[in-house]
Amino acid sequence: MEPPACRTRRKRRPAVRIEGMGSSKPTRCAKRENDMIGHLGRWIVAACFAVAAVAAQAQPYPNQSIKLIVPYGPGQATDVMCRVFAEQLKVVLKQNIVIENRVGAASNLGAAEAAKAAPDGYTLLCTGNATHVANPLLYSSMGFDPDKDLLPITAVAATGYVMAVGPKLKGKTVTEVVAMAKSASPPLKMGLASTTSRVLFEMLRQAANVQLTNVPYMAGNRDLFPDLMRGDTDMVIEAMPSAMGSVTGGTVTPIAVTLPERSPLLPNVPTFKEVGLDVQLVGWNAFYAPKGTSPEIIATLNRAALEALRHPDVAKRLEAIACVPNPTSPEQLAKMIADDRAKWKPIVEEYKLRVN
């Protein structure tokens, strides 16, 4: 047995000094503890964010504002119709809807932006029939594929187009204008603010067997009627919602509508069919989401849209601008697109209207 003096004594570890408590220099253990606390804090923060994200996903759609892209300028027919629709839709969804006008490339620019948005239901598209019907026939490249990159939700509203002449043109009926056009040199000029108007222009030119010059306003119709008033153009053919202000205000003269029957708002204006010309077309606009949007969100949006469109105030406001509500299922909208494109394809091919 070893004598007591020779026993090995355990060295006592120095007490850990906490910063600010007797020593300004932290020990190795203090550093380790601080590192552990830092890691724990970061883990807690990350966990909180994860829980918040899961909680947000668990909330019923929609739980934040929705951006609605309209690829036409303020005051154009599609913009007017979409705004009436969106005001009631936000009431149904109980969320704010922010309309963003993305004008350019005959609606292709804004539609492409919507098609490439995240498919979470918070960026949607409200556009005219030209985007899905005329443009795929006119443009070899639109920057997106409207059939593959956008999912139909519902049609929104339907309307007609009106042909109007300016104050400087002597002809005030279709018959008089056609007679003038047959002998005019240079040809009479018609202002056009959409690809749908361009198709109607060709239908009229061929039906009446006259030469006309088209003056495109593809960046919007802001100058369409002022130019008509000044005599820069002789006539226009424009969607009724954006034309009604000038038409009913007496600044220009409406001479025909493209509807199957006369419009209740313009009872004295004949249809093209009444004056012997086969120029008939009903325009419409519709509501879409980016591809990849879940079926549940599409169903929610369709139910909300149909409720909004069936509200009496919406019908009243749309009728005041020569429109009628046109609620559909996604499948019905897809069929409308296919049917109209089939009707327009031979017109585009016959009149060689392709842009690129």
Fold blueprint:
Layout: H1 28-58, E1 66-70, H2 77-93, E2 97-101, H3 108-115, E3 123-128, H4 129-132, H5 135-138, H6 146-149, E4 150-159, E5 161-165, H7 174-183, E6 188-192, H8 195-208, E7 212-216, H9 224-230, E8 235-239, H10 240-248, E9 253-257, E10 283-290, H11 295-309, H12 312-320, E11 323-325, H13 330-350
Parallel strand pairs: 1-2, 1-3, 6-7, 6-8
Antiparallel strand pairs: 3-10, 4-10, 4-11, 5-8, 5-9
Write a concise keyword list for the protein shown above.
six-stranded mixed sheet; single chain; 43% helix; 2 domains; 356 residues; D-Maltodextrin-Binding Protein, domain 2; five-stranded mixed sheet
Would you give an account of this structure?
Helix content is 43%, strand content 17%. The chain has 13 helices and eleven strands. The strands form two sheets. It has a six-stranded mixed beta sheet, sandwiched between helices. Strand 6 (188-192), helix 8 and strand 7 (212-216) form a beta-alpha-beta unit. The longest helix is centred in the first third of the chain and has 31 residues, at 28-58. The protein is elongated, with a radius of gyration of 32 Å. The relative contact order is 0.15. Mean pLDDT is 88; it is low at 1-9, 15-24 and 48-56.
